[in-house]
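Quick bug: Fe-S cluster assembly protein SufD output formatted oddly.
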Amino acid sequence: MTVTDTARDSVAAALEQGKVESHLHPTGSYDVADHAAPTGREEIWRFTPLKRLKGLASDAVFNAPTTEVTHVAPEGVRVETVTGDEAQALRGVSGYKPATLFGARVLSEVPDTLLVDVPAETEVVEPIIVNLTGTDAENTEAGHVVLRFGNFSKAVVVLRHTGSAALAQVVEIRVGDSAQVSVVSLQDWADDATHLTHTEALVGRDAAYKHTAISFGGDLVRMDANVRYSAPGGSAEMLGLYFADEGQHLEHRLFADHNQPRTSSNVMYKGALQGEGAHTVWIGNVLIRKEAEGIETYEENRNLILTDGTLCDSVPNLEIETGEIAGAGHASATARFDDEQLFYLRSRGIDEKEAQRLVVHGFFNDLIRKIGVPAIEEQLVTTVETELAKNLTGKLL
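Here's what came back:
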């Protein structure tokens, strides 16, 4: 039998069982021994420069953490590092079952959990700010974070990552029924930081969940952001904004797993690249399972190339197992400056550099306004300006 015949028979057998094998159906395990170290040939690792990860994805020693944690939270919201049985009970609270070695290692080897707990029916007016400040880029460490929102609660949590670190991280989010929740993960690291992080969210019945990933700093940042549903009626809005400079690798992977009927997901990520060797990766995965009738989903990624020498990978994937859906689609585009926009601005007396600056701000502005945290929105406008200033002496495309 030829290899082709074998593959054909395997697909036929899978079809007979009602399911075709795909990377969107990973088999997870809490047992570290069930996971192999990535080689870079795997679908989920093929874009990631593993040699720059300092072993975080494989066999790096998870040392005692040097990343400092502080927070600002109102009375009634619990923000605390927990240990022992309580920490163990929080492993997998989002339904997360690791499909990677580093995820399994974090849940198995990290002894404590940073818990943010918003009680049921609690409405938090001001954002809950959790600062994770790295102090040593050579100290490989790992962390487990749990954000738990009770039924009918309303809150915004900001995870702000700054400083120098080499951090492997698992963030689990459990959104209670009818809760309205926003989580902002800000990667504003120093230039020498390495951050490998997986975020898993479980959205309850009729709950609204928004996740915003913002990556500017760091030598290498890879973030997986997954969402699943525990009951019908849940919605997820997944936003992202990134700006890669010379030599930076910024990678974002999304997975919306529609495993319940009448759920929805909307994904919008935007990025800009400038400088030799700047590399961004966006992978948008959506799985609509057989039982997920009446769902609606759309994912979009837009990238703006500012200089020569950059590399941008954008890959949307959509797997549909039922035709009984309200709608599903995706869009991806990578381009240089819009000549018509620049011509319009130049024709009104605006010089070339200022015209380019205005186009970049316009590119990001609609997404920034969706974040819903004024302090973060103002910071991002300033950060975009700072990033552009790095290239003022160079030539934008």
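Actually, after a second look the formatting is fine. The two ends are 54 Å apart (CA to CA). Closing.
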